[in-house]
Amino acid sequence: MKMAAPWAVGVEVFPGNTQDAKTVPDKIAQIQQAYGISQLIFVGDRGMITQANSRKLEGTKGLQTISALTHRQIVDLLERKVITPELFDEKAIAEVLDPDNLKRRYCLCRNPETAKRETRTRKELLEVTRLKLEAIAAPRKKGGHKEPDPKRARKPTKKKITPAEKIGARVGRVLQRYKMGKFIHWSVKEGKLEWQFDQEKIAAEERFDGCYVVSSDVPPEQMAKAQVVASYKRLSFVEQAFRNLKTVQLEVRPVYHKKDERIRAHVFICLLAYYLQWHARQRLQPLFDKDGQGKERQWTFRNVIEHLATLRTNRVKNSGVEFDLKTSANHEHQTILDLLAGKKS
After folding, report:
1. What phi and psi values does residue 317 have, to the nearest 5 degrees?
2. How would you class 135 by CB atoms within 10 Å of its CB: exposed for 0-12, middle for 13-18, buried for 19 or more?
3. How do residues 139-174 score in pLDDT, each as one tens digit?
């Protein structure tokens, strides 16, 4: 089943530092009312459909949701024995119903590429942590006698910090920086750091690399498990749209306007620009489909715009003679222009 990328139908700007999750319940109600939608399936990421929002949205007429579980929620399902590690597969999607709520479906998936990346990242962080902890545990060389600084001697004495506290502070900074504390047992004995990796925890964590659970209350007869997972994955199009709007190409931010109406106009023009960009991408898809992969790839949407920018008209003045010098379109220019005009290549 091939799905087209979504395009925006509206935009709204909230005051600064407004959390996404706080906007969800009110916006769902507004969409249902404004567009006259009686049945709505809301697809949101983990940060949008929080547990608090789920409770608020319960009982909303005509509303169903699709989202993914957090790591803590997956662990909870494991502890309740609703799911087991063996159910996660790279090829097949396993589906499980929540015994406490038979309307709640869990689609278990595993992405092998994500699994490789997560495993590699953890190994790199563990290796850096190991080097840092070994440096802390290594005995320090005693330096020679130093004469006291008379200026420093005048300062009031501070509370003496024990060697164990100093070592603990250094270890804490390392674990805070690299986030590997849950895999390490450590203690300070007789002023010396002793530590070791918890290999069982590392192995257990690695078993879930690339694993994720998509949760939904949409009935199976309305949407198959593959469609539920595909709908959640389509959020990547939404994320890409936000990146293009905010920073990558259209640059809604930074906003330097001081009046509300100018801010609204600025955001609205950016939305119109994205709308045109979306349609241009659809018409340029044959060009992208024929392109190479990876390093062999020639065309991106940015490359297309940069290539078209070389078509220009310059006003030339020379010895009383004045004329327009126009760039001639080459084969690549013409291909792009034909596709944008809706002509088949």
Report:
1. -125, 125
2. exposed
3. 776 655 555 565 565 556 566 778 888 999 999 999
